Amino acid sequence: MDVTLTPATVTGQARAPPSKSYTHRAILAAGYGGGTATVHNPLVSADTRATMAAVEAFGGRVERGDDAVTITGFDGRPDVPDRIVNCENSGTTMRLTTATAALADGLVVLTGDESLRSRPQGPLLDAIEQLGGRAESTRANGQAPLVVGGPIDGGRAAIPGDVSSQFISALLMAGAVTPDGLTVDLETALKSAPYVEITLDVLDAFGVAASGEGREWSAPGGQTYAASDGEYRVPGDFSSMSYLLSAGALAAPEGLRVVGAEPSAQGDVAIVEHLQAMGAPLRWDREAGTIDVERGALEGIEASVADTPDLLPTLAAVGAAADGTTRIVDCEHVRYKETDRVSAMADELGRMGASVTEHDDELLVHGSETDLEGARVDGRGDHRIVMALALAGLVADGETTIEGAEHVDVSFPGFFETMAELGVDVVRSD
C-alpha cells in the first residue's frame, strides 16, 4: 500500500499505542507461567501476534479480548512444537523465543520472513551451546532458519553486549526457570541497556528476580512466573510516541497533546529531552501521563542512539527540518534492524532534498542546507522508516508518497488513522 501526504498542520489529542517492548515480554512472561495471567492494554500488532503464536506453539493458550490478552502458560517447560515457529518480521520474537526453545526436550525450528532471516543471531546461538544446548543456523551463517534444543539446566555464558540487548533479555527470561539459574558475562559494553531494564521490570511484575550491571547479569534458577493477582498492564510506547511528539514539534502551531505517556523504564523516553534540546516547547505532566508539544524554531543537536536505536529515524526526519546540523552518533548497531536504518534514512531523505552525510557509526543531517521537497520514497519494509518519512512529508513542499506504508502494522497499526484525525490529508492507494 502507498500513502500520499501533503504539508499540514496538526492539532488536537492523540493517544500513544501500548509499548511493543513491554507487550512482547509480558506475553512471554505469562507463557512461562504455570497459571493464567491477563495482560491488559497490550499492543496487538504483527510483531506481538508472532509472540502470541510462539507461546501457543510451545504449549500455552492465548485468548484475545477487546483490550486484553489472557494467557495460560506452559509452566516453564515448553513443548516441542509440532510445526516450525514462524516469527514473521519480529526480531524480538525470534530472539526471546530462541532461548525458550533451548528449554525444550527436543529440537525446535525457528524462522521468519526475508528481512528477519538476514539479521544476526549467532551470539545467542553460541551462548546456548555454551550452556549445553544445541543451537545452529541451517545456513551456517548465524542467521535464521535456526535449529535449537535442550533442555539446558542453566550455567554461565559469555556473549557480546554490543550486537543486541535482546540476547541478554532472552537468556535472563529463560534462565529463571532453569534448575541452576543462568549468568551472562558480557564481552563488550552493553548497548541498548534500557531494553534489558524493561525486561527486569516485567520480570519483577511477574515475581521473578534477575539483576545485573556492567558486564555481569544473572537470573537465579527454579523460579516461577506469576503476575500479581494474575493481572499486568502495559504502559504507553515512547518509541511510537516519538512520531506523535515530533509531529507536534514540526507542525502544531496551536499545540498537540499526547496521552498515555506514563513514566517507565523505556529508553526512548529520551525523545522528550531531544525535542526540548532542539527547541520544541514541550511540557510533560508525568502524573497525568500527558505531554503537550508545540511547533518551535528547531535547532540541530548531537544525539547518541547507543541505548535508543529506534529513535534514529525520528531524529533524522526532525533534523532535516531543523536549522544547523543534527549529528546522530553511536549508530552502527542500528544497521541491523528490519533494514539498515542508517543508510535507509540517508537515502530516502536524500530523495526529498535533504543534505545528509553518512559514516559507519554516525549520521549527519544538515538542516540548514536542506529544503525538503515531496517525493516518492520507499519505506523499505520497515515500520519506523515509514513513520519517520511521514514526518518529513508534513513539512516538505508538495506531495510525498511512501511505498510500503502498510508496514506500520508492526508497531503502530493505527498510525495513519491517527495522523488523519490530527488534520493530515492521508490518501491510500494499492
Automatic annotation (TrEMBL):
It catalyses: 3-phosphoshikimate + phosphoenolpyruvate = 5-O-(1-carboxyvinyl)-3-phosphoshikimate + phosphate. Its EC number is 2.5.1.19. It comes from the Archaea. The gene is aroA. HAMAP family: EPSP_synth (MF_00210). PROSITE patterns: EPSP_SYNTHASE_2. It is found in: Cytoplasm. The active site is at D310. 3-phosphoshikimate binds at K20, S21, R25, S164, S165, Q166, S192, D310, K337. It is an enzyme of class 2 (transferase). This is 3-phosphoshikimate 1-carboxyvinyltransferase. It comes from Halococcoides cellulosivorans. PANTHER family: AROM/DEHYDROQUINATE SYNTHASE (PTHR21090), PENTAFUNCTIONAL AROM POLYPEPTIDE (PTHR21090:SF5). Belongs to the EPSP synthase family. GO terms for molecular function: 3-phosphoshikimate 1-carboxyvinyltransferase activity. Pathway: Metabolic intermediate biosynthesis; chorismate biosynthesis; chorismate from D-erythrose 4-phosphate and phosphoenolpyruvate: step 6/7. CDD domains: EPSP_synthase. Monomer. Residues 1-12 have a biased composition (Polar residues). Its main location: cytoplasm.
